[in-house]
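Troubleshooting: if your tokenizer reports a length mismatch, compare against these two reference records.
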Amino acid sequence: MNNIKKLLRFMIFTILVFTFPCTAAEDNVFVQTDEFNNLRLGNDYIVIVVNKDENAQGRFAIETTGGAPMRNNDDHKPLVYGRPKPWTSYTTIWIDGEHYVFGGKTGRRAGKNGKYGEVTKEPYVKNNSIHTMTVFNKISVEQVLTPVKSSTTGLFNSVQIKYRIKNNDTRPHKIGLRIMLDTMLGENDGAPFRFGQDAVTTDRLYYKKELPVFWQAFDTLSNPNVTSQGTFNGPSVTPPDKVYLADWGSLADGVWNFDFNPNEEFIRKGEFETDSAIAMFWVPEILKPGQEKTYITEYGLGGITIVPGLISLGVTSPAEVTINKINRSFPVIAYVENTAEIAAKNVKIKLSLPDKLTTEQPIRELGNMEPGDISQIVWKVTPTDSNLPREISYEVKVEADNTDSNSVSRNVKFVGPPILNVELKLKDKLVTKLGKLSPNPFTVSATINNTGDSTLFDVNTTLVLPPGLVLAPKERYRKYTGFIPPDQSVEVKWQVKALDVEGKLPFAVEVRGLGGYNSTEIKNIKLPGRKPLIYLNIRDEDRLTEGEIITIDVMGENLENLNKMDMVLKYNPYHLKPIYVSRGNIFLKDGKLLPWEEPNINKEGVIIVKEELPRKVNRGKITSIHFKVISLQQIDLTWGESRFYGNNNNPIKVELRGIE
């Protein structure tokens, strides 16, 4: 019954994955805080567990929930140890020769000897990811953990482990990163790391050029409890510079450098138990002021097509291969286990490929295999034609002189690279109100649509503004959108403020992603003209009663080209009586009074304002006229014939407005 339930769940999920690639993970996601104060984000296959306590805050574990759809013995098993609270795995940031541990302080063995920063954002869920932020002086480090598709299963049963580091200082810093994972396969802590053709059970160092596309681990091929997988190369990760396989105790004690003993078994340092771990290093690089760098790896469940037999055969390869100018090949890995009770004689294995694909040595001689022996073979498969079918099937067959043969078929899909179309828009209609741009700030957006065949990972967008346009307060130029699957789009918005400018202004949005993806789109914003404006503003409207004093301010906008003004204001003397006038802030600077000609209010029904502006200003108050209210029948103030002059006494046109 359990197998039937899991099969139905797998079939439903497969339909979701291939019909709605963007929402497949979201449809199955759960978020909860467990009884140990861990934040848990998971789906039908896998769960990320993050420690929320102050002690070791931000450290994480990875476990299965339902595991592989057709297997019952991998449910609720640890892939990265962390029960009941994650603490054994940790990440180190190398800053100018000092070693800092990400997250909250701990007195326990793992990372006890490191330095610590301040957790400024405790673990929280955003956009189907668990985020945690730690700051080390002027260096901010964000940890982002996200369920993603495994490259070999095509299901959301892997975890993207991402660190985004930013130099917020005014000087450069040298930054490096180490991610140490306390790996575990259910109850088995000593299964070999399978790196290409190597089954590693002792301390081992791999450099970048030696790293396989992915590595796997399982306890037994014929009936594995859990099959784990880490990814080093591909469109969704940033390859580490070197990888150490070692015992957990040594890596726990050494925050950056550690006691590494090549060919020594994974026996926990200072103890007698097998305890394996993996550490990925990205060597220190200079990060300039304001510069950011992202480090990404993946770890979770792996997919192997297994056919048991006297000679059990398991085959794996990427479920989907992106073909572009950089990537022209993919690995096929076969695991062969002699599960018979006798030695298998003259074992040979053959990879059969369809047309347009080739490999070196499709037939390999494995020799004799004793009972329980496991061999692993890697082929590098390369297309011979750029016009590949959408999907192919290949076969791996193993034979021996004295046992039955066995074979496995597996499919691979070929897809093209991601292609992004970016549409820039001004979201608001810009107008001028009282001489000012409205709205200001306003919204611009970039709608990014992936019309390609494959997902672009770690997408970030940067807004580029010309002089005269700036970001609104608390806004930021660069924004991250995660990944964009094929036929999906995402909209990114910015709040932008215009300074004292008008006309067509260009702005640009730069889109970047993993694998060197970089494109830029440019668009013009048309800002309406800002004509000089002088208008009247009534103060103290609640005092509009007979016998009270009210104030009318004469306000100016866009006055930078105005030198002199000769204005006439008309009023009804039966309704209003001018009492006195006062200078506006245009005629004040640094607390000092500037030359000002007091307006003439002696002529009944008319106020004459003749001023020569003492300084260049854009806006401000020209004068304030204080009236006594005689009658409330009508507060009528109108403009009479007025003239305005700019440089060299050239007349200029100014818009005049009465009381709104």
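Reference record two:
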Amino acid sequence: MQKAVSSVAVAVAAVRRPTRRCHLPALPGDEVLVKVNELMSIEIQITYSYYSLPFCRPDNLTESAPTLWQLLHGDRQQRSPYQFEMRVPKKCQIVCRVLVGEKEAKELMEKMEDEYRVNMALDNLPLSIPIRRIDKDDFFYQHGYHIGEEHKRYFIHNHLSFLVRYKRDIDTSASTIVAYEVKPFSVKHQYEAQWNGANSRLSTCDANANRFILSSDSPPEIEVGEEIIFTYDVNFEESDIKWASRWDAYLSMTDDQARWFSIVNSPVTLIGLSVAMAMTMLRSLHRDIFRYSKLETQNEAQVETGWKLVHGDVFRPPSNPVLLCAYAGSGVQLFGLRNVVLLTWVLMGMLAGYTSSRLYKMFKSGSEWKHITMATAIQFPGFTFVIFAILNTLLQDENSSATVPPTTMCALVLLWSGIAPPLVFLGGYLGYKRPAIEPPVEINKTPRKIPKQAWYISPVFSILIGSIFPFTIVFIELFFGLIFIWYHQFYRGFGFLLITLVLLLVACAEISVAFCYYQLRSGNYKWWWRSFLTPGCSAVYLFLYATFFFFAKLSIVKPVSVMFYFGYMLVVSYAFFLLTGTIGFFSCFFFTRFIYSQRAFG
């Protein structure tokens, strides 16, 4: 894809110390490895390899061994043609000269129109451009630099001015890198006499003459047959930033004030909900249990109304118990997983199988526990894999670097089929061998007729209203999460994420229990599915907000990118549905067992 007339490595010292590949302190003159990463765009959301464009290549092009997350994320780090030596400044270093053909010019212009940016890393620190805020006296950092500029004409950024900030140890003179910045330029370089590779003398940028002149009067417009000379310079600047704090500047871009407002507002909402429950539901519940326990005969008990009369039907198995058990098991697996690695998801399969089989045995719907464990093992991973496989095929057609190689895809399938289902089946077997969970009251042989329900107790209305509360808890954090993912920004505040998770758990439990109680008071004992759907359908609001975010905040127009966005957001929404629904289901489960296990129902 690239036709280079000459690719010349920058000369380094004859006696070279070992390359520093991590955050080990480096002595003056030590080589520090610069890596290039994927090309990304917030308008297209499809990543490409750095060397898919006609950029300079190093003599020994190597790729770091990617982790599983990097393979799935399309993060491919490769050696760059830029060579740095710690605390050794360089001026106007020539990398190579490239002749732009018709194919190369078309690819570059397309990437510029789509506003693609180049990502690099130095000592695992991402390359960034500091941009001063208009309303504040500080900077925010743009991840990477744009390939070029497009203003009716196309100009490529062929000169990079790097700034590396370092923290020096006074005792050893060793240094650690604490900041990695760049300023890109478009320069139409001119060389004197003949082209002589790295030894060529540039009239626009001459390091040999100890002068550095950049002129943007005639930047290198991309035209077929034109040559582009890539150059760079490196400056080192000592800093007071400690190595442990070097990420603080990158992570200060988010609006913590809005996040704190959300965190403070959510407990206020929950406190109001808790007070309302304490004033109405709990008070009424305590009074009903006390009065019912004073009744001396069953005939007297029959005079009572509300949730007490449905005690013989409240634990009647729900319709389609297999799917409900599978959902509950998958939700338990997700709740145990949270934000941990993929391998933990596989290992949590035993808990999912155990939960679903124990619930299924309690319903006494049959003895085929293998069916329920199979449904638990495949329903969420199968859905996710189908979406992932479709998107991966589309990315492969686009030659994206985010494409998962066939070998990795096979490894994922083997990891799932060889480990996950056996663990789910093992958990299901252990759960089914345990004694069945017996209801605290005897179930009537004949189902009681459900009285006509008020409109505000109807399933559709209660689910739509109840599911709003969990969504309001995660609304602000969801916004920052979408910014982090689709704007390729830096994410900070995992403490916010933990607090939001705790608040979400409380909100799902309270709203599900409250609606369950009022449903039982109306004489409707079919609470199983509604307890799951009331908080679980907050995933619908999540997906609707993701749709709003797509049209309001993003400028994606390419069909493949649109499918990529909505495909992944559909998986996220489905996982949120399982997680919140499971929390609500088990909250109602323990609540109903508690109220019906009182002495009057013994």
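Descriptive notes for reference record two:
- The first strand starts at residue 4 and ends at 7.
- The longest helix spans residues 256-294.
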